[in-house]
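wait is this the right file?? whatever heres the structure
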């Protein structure tokens, strides 16, 4: 049987090649720009290697289907597959699926064609947190280019970061939520639905410790700086997730130009594609990382940069008092971990 397959190998090559040309058309129609540049080879041990590029941000469900009638029908669903197939395949170039044909079937005959399908799983999946109004949304894993060449020196070098999926609060932590956990309200502007502010990085760690005691097993924490920027961008490369202009910012957040010099109830402006509110403006948001002057040596895997450097922790997103340049997704704020200010709040993330 193996010999017969080998004998037909040249034909299989040709047919796959022809069929793939046609498939690229149907794939691009069916899945927008997500799957591109599908190519194949047959390894020396008779495995079919399918390679492709997966565009976009986040993770996809990827499946492989096989036709033996030149792409008319795809009735074979290979099971002996490995590599970039199945759930949670991160977007990127040079993805690779290995199909061990002879583990699935004794022979493969006919005019063979393969089809790669990518779909977005669980987009916008929300889960309720342990406090009223505390909702989390799944941030799909993926990779992105962190930083900006059009901003400040500390936003360079622009570098690729891989992010694992996590859950992020859809809003900043409110004063009602803070009071429930901590029993006080340090904010300068008072209102249950307003973001809590005048909280230091260390205060936030105390809140998080108590939140984890109330709801154990979830692993609540501050986002890393990389996770924060990735979540804010939600696949965009513009200054704000709504675009590049100040009017775009005004739709997304409360800043100097529209805040009337105060904070506003969370969740009123246009959210980003992943359902996050107020990532631009309202209050700055503490991140876990120590502040470093450049990204040289920054982690590439999305973890917080925890090696001490200087005396500042990172804040992101700008606030009600800041101009547009400070509210950009790439801008990096800094403040002492024990310092308080009516501009500074936070939101929490968790792994499940
Ligand atoms: Ca904010």
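ok assuming it is, sequence goes like this
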């Amino acid at each position: 049987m193996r010999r017969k397959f080998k004998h037909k190998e040249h034909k299989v090559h040709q047919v796959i090649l022809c069929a793939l040309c046609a498939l690229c058309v149907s794939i691009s129609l069916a899945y927008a720009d997500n799957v591109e540049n599908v190519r194949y080879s047959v390894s020396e041990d008779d495995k079919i290697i399918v390679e492709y590029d997966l565009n976009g941000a986040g993770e996809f469900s990827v499946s492989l289907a096989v036709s033996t009638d030149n792409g008319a029908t795809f009735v074979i669903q290979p099971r002996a597959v490995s590599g970039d197939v199945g759930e949670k395949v991160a977007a990127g170039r040079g993805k690779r699926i290995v199909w061990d044909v002879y583990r699935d079937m004794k022979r493969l005959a006919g005019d063979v064609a393969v089809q790669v399908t990518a779909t977005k799983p669980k987009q916008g999946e929300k889960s309720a947190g342990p406090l009223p109004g505390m909702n989390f949304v799944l941030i799909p894993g993926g990779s992105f280019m962190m930083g900006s060449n059009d901003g400040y020196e500390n936003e360079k070098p622009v570098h690729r970061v891989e992010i694992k999926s996590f859950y992020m609060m859809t809003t900043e932590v409110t004063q009602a939520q803070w009071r429930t956990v901590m029993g006080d309200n340090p904010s300068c502007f008072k209102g249950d639905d307003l973001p809590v502010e005048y909280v230091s990085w260390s205060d936030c760690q105390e809140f998080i410790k108590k939140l984890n005691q109330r709801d154990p097993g979830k692993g609540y924490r501050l986002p890393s700086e990389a996770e924060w920027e990735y979540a804010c961008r939600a696949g965009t490369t513009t200054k704000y997730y709504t675009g590049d202009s100040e009017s775009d910012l005004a739709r997304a957040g409360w800043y100097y130009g529209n805040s009337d010099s105060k904070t506003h109830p969370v969740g009123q402006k246009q959210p980003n594609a992943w359902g996050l509110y107020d990532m631009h403006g309202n209050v700055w948001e503490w991140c876990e990382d120590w502040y470093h002057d450049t990204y040289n040596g920054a982690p590439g895997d999305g973890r917080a940069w925890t090696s001490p450097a200087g005396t500042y922790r990172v804040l992101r997103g700008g606030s009600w008092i800041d101009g547009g340049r400070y509210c950009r997704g790439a801008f990096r704020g800094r403040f002492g971990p024990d310092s308080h200010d009516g501009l500074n709040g936070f939101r929490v993330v968790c792994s499940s």
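The chain is about 20% helix and 25% strand. so i think its the right one actually
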